[in-house]
Amino acid sequence: MKTGVILISHGSKLSSGNDGLFQVADMLRAMNRWDMVEAAFLQLAEPGFPEVVKKTVESGVDRLVVVPLLLFKGNHVYKDIPEMLEIEKKKYPQVEFIYSNNIGADERIALIAADRIHEVLVEKEYGSGQRVEQPQAIVDESFEIIDKLVNLESVPDLHRPIIQRAIHATGDTEYAYNLIFHPAAVEAGIRSLKSGGNIITDVNMAKAGITRGPVENFGGKIICKIAEKSVIDEAKHLGKTRAIVAMQQSINEMKGGIVAIGNAPTALFELIDLIKTGLAQPALVIGIPVGFVGAVEAKSALKSIAVPYITNT
Predict the structure, then answer these.
(1) Which pLDDT band, with edges at 50, 70 and 90, does 127 fall under?
(2) Most CB atoms closer than 10 Å: which of 28, 85, 142, 284?
(3) Residue 35, CA distances (Å) to 19, 26, 61, 117, 119 in order
(4) Is 76 a catalytic residue?
């Protein structure tokens, strides 16, 4: 079945005011999930809805999803678009028309609004245009900005610098609200580092983001085996991911240390299994894998282990 998508919005006499709809259509096309993605306007701009329906039908679509790219419900959503749809259905009875919900009061819209608020506040308060070139001055100013953007007064003292560092490293203020700490996590991490524990990471990118000095001063090492030949060869032989095999081959080095998973859900799943079977004995697990497949489930499973952990929602 060939599926087409039509994004429909109000339209503006000002041509630049219509660019956004075309840009969103381009973004959806880039996902390669539908056979066609087109933009249409209700009024004041071209192309109009009937014209775009005709174009998509003539291209051979069997199913047409109409998406009102309108923030809130109003006459356009309740009346105008449904009436136009009925007319088009009669013209093209062979096509299945599906009318989606509008954007609505979605939490993701609130997050975008929050980003815009933060952007304008930072620009207003810190957009002097002055260049700051001293490393410590840059860090100090960054933390001042973070303190302006998020309120961490109610956060436990031991958690606060970790949250600040996470925001500083990523530019994402949501870490102020979505990091989850096991009650003993920070203390376990401090003890591990002071006793010379290693830090094991799932990928070299995570390893590169860790400052070596403090770890090595206490006698520890930062270790990532993802690119080692033995890991690559065994992963190919077993038909498993390198992240899984790297965790298996790091069991000895992680004893009493910290394991930081910043990329692969499969690495975190494997680590959890190794801990539950008693083969792996880290002092702390930092589990913040990414991706659409397995990340949420892996982070949920992490909360079931007895070892202290830090993760996010």
Answers:
(1) low
(2) 284
(3) 22, 13, 8, 36, 36
(4) no
Burial of 23 (0-12, 13-18, 19+ CB in 10 A): exposed
CB 193, CB 214: distance < 8 Å: yes
Number of neighbouring beta carbons within 10 Å of residue 62: 13
CA nearest 166: which of 189, 183, 190, 142? 142
Residue ranges of the chain assigned to CATH 3.40.50.1400: 3-99
Higher pLDDT, 148 or 215: 215
Q: Which numeric CATH code is attached to 182-312?
A: 3.40.50.10230
Q: 10, 168, 182, 237: which one is catalytic? A: 168
How confident is the model at residue 225, as a pLDDT? 96
Q: Which fold is adopted by the domain 3-99?
A: Rossmann fold (3.40.50)
Q: Give 196: exposed, middle or buried? Use CB within 10 Å, 0-12, 13-18, 19+.
A: middle
